Amino acid sequence: MHVVVRVAGVTDGVTVTFDTALGTDVHIVNSTLLIVTTPAHVTGLVDVIVKNSAGESKTLSGGYGY
User: Are 15 and 26 in contact (CB under 8 A)?
Assistant: First the structure.
């Protein structure tokens, strides 16, 4: 499933992790908007972690529900 992620400071090389699984097909729309494909996961809420190419990350606890 494709989801939209809003986060400040998006740059090339950004990754998005859902719980411990890496999202795929990350498309940068602009400096605050990403579209990413979620990995398979069991039902429930998971943390969403966005990490930039410098290794800085932002976490939204329980930010996505499967």
Answer: yes
Q: CB–CB of 9/54 below 8 Å? A: no
Do 58 and 6 touch, CB atoms closer than 8 A? no
Give the per-residue pLDDT at 21.
96
- pLDDT value at residue 35: 97
Q: Residue 57: which of 3, 2, 15, 24 has the closest Cα?
A: 15
